[in-house]
Amino acid sequence: MSDRIADPVRFIDERTAAAPAIKKALRYLFPDHWSFLLGEIALYAFIVLIATGTYLALFFEPSVAKTVYHGSYAPLRGREMSEAYKSVLEISLTYKAGLLIRQTHHWAADVFMASIVLHLMRVFFTGAFRKPRELTYLIGLLLLFTSLLEGYLGYSLVDDLLSGIGLAIGYGVLLSLPFVGGPLGILIFGSTFPGKGVFESRMYIAHVFLIPALLATLIGLHLALVAARHHTQFRRDRRHTQRRLVGVPMFPGQAPRSLALLLIVAAVLFLLGGLVQINPIWQWGPFEPWLATNGAQPDWYLGWLIGALRLMPSFDVVVGHYTLIPNPFWGGVAFPLLVLFVLGAFPWIERRLTGDRSSHNLLDRPRDAPNRTAFGVAFLTWVFLVFVFGASDRVYVLFGLSYETLLTAFRVAIWVVPALAFLVVRRLCLQLQHADRIEERREEAEQEAEREHAERVRRREPVL
Amino acid sequence: MRAKQLLVTLMALAFGRRRSRDPEQKAREEESPQGRIVPAGEPDRGAELLVVGLLALATLFAAGFIVVYGEMGPTKTLNTLLGVCIAGALACIAAALAVIARRLIVTEEIEEEYPEESPEEQREIVQLVHDSGSRFTRRKLLVGAAATAGSALGLAGLTPVLSLGPLWDTVPLEATPWYRGRRLVDPGGHPMLASDIEEETFYTAFPQGADPENIGSSLVVIRLAPSALKLPHGRETWAPYGILAFSRICTHAGCAIELYRKPRFQPVEPKPALVCPCHYSTFDPATGATVVYGPAGRPLPQLPVMIDPDGHLAAAGDFSGRVGPAWWGVRAKPS
How close, in Å, is residue B42 to chain A by CA atoms? Predict the structure, then answer.
């Protein structure tokens, strides 16, 4: 007897003996909570990035060799520019669907980073990083920072004016590395910035192969570790415990939902790519090292580094007549490494402080861990204020506040506001806990009264 | 005739009822000892129709994408329409899946135990490794030798990477294209006449015949009243008629100095200044571009300028310091 389902299943199992594994995978349980979708959104944005990026790579020319533009965009006609910039102009303005794919790629990168950050916040504030999931969490952090580099290289490839400024700053930060900075800069760029034409192809292979391969590997590990220990869950009722997981199985319950989310993410990204202009590179013109522009803003996920470079007071480590550690090191290297270190060490710091070494499958609500939540909000506020200062010149243009005033104000605010946030959030968590306890007691009392009432009715005693 | 048949078929597909129960399915259920795995639910024909409708709409959007691609030239409208079409197709299928998930599939909530640690297997792995190595007597030596060989092989494998560039070379960081007598040219390549340089404005200059993209090439040239100059000792002849030339590359992070804050309103902004638009390092040209504000740690390198016999600007020597962002070991103060 032939059967459209049974036959292929038998075929596969007879050749791979995979039926038990497949059955287990199909019945893998997903806890039902919206916040668990944030990581999924990042994964789907990554898929869109791979698809659109592959298309773009078919047309992009990773070369800074000089050429003259004779294309359809009149304002740049006759301008000398790099092959790279010219090919992105062609993608944007000549090839049909090229602009759509390029803008979708750019939007997908921004959404990818945003969903990773939101996912990290969910994981942090619910304590999902605790034992036994510290490795999953560390790999997630690595993914965040690797993606940041990937995004930076992506928009640096284009060789338009904005990307060139970003690259110049990157070169400055690279040179600032203690001891190795100078020679390392020369090794990577092949010469002093902007290099002798060898850097573009190095950046290209990193952006389209090395880093995506690393990201894909890390994502695979991240997911494998999630599956190995299973998802965490909130305690919604008595069935959810440290030992028992309640969830919707991958098939048939979760599969259509996840697939729908994938398609919705793709739909939103393509809609953004079609309707909302992003990085109109033809307006910036080609990059030359002697050009810069005022009010240039990088993609949002680099804003915190620009902010840090601007906020850092003028301070170099100078010995005698010689600079040892130049200023860009603090904002461009030390600050992000400090953020990475604090986040990465947090599971162990918390364990040391609370003495809690047990495994946790149940999530905390933010209020359940007032100190962690308060610290998290304070830390986030600190980084966020630095990020906001990255747009300080925009604030100047919009509100007319002088840059000098803003700088002074922010240098104070980035310490004072997080400290206040810590106190306020901690207080708030404790209040919420208190309210919970009152609610619990009230419910208990009500249940007790109901029981007594039922008992009286049963015994036919007079009801008071 | 054929159209009519097609219509009937479509109607039958849309509104025809499936046989009450698939006999095969029934047989399978009877065979299976546990009965069903996924619990049964009522059919929902409205939902099925909705799914078909959404999928049809998705098909239309996808077809629209192909038609729009074929019919239109590369314009902004094409981009918008393509985006709407592909997003529409994706969103319709997503909506169909959402209907399937909510109304056509029984959503089970299942419980299971979280995976546990396996102390027995842990112990066995440890024992396995210990037992396997029992014939080795000089463990430290062997591990050391293996580590050495591994590292050597790793280093050998990395060696070809050195072809990317010099491993430890700071000479390019020190090099500049400027020397005494080299003329200053404007972005069009024309030599610059000293008499053309005016106050309160801002010029870009390059070394004649050199690569303008070299980080040491580009200059910002301005002119101040000679009486306003307070240049460091030893630079008395560097600015004839108040004409000053500085490297255009900011010493903080390598952006170009593209802002010239000139005194528009005397009481508010008393002094002209060169400003980098990236992190707002601000330099005072009158004092040799010392840092007056912002994160930069070194002044902009100044290029001594002279006027050659036919009135053109030329370099009178090399910069007062190293061009561009600082690195470990660069001279912090001009020599």
Answer: 16
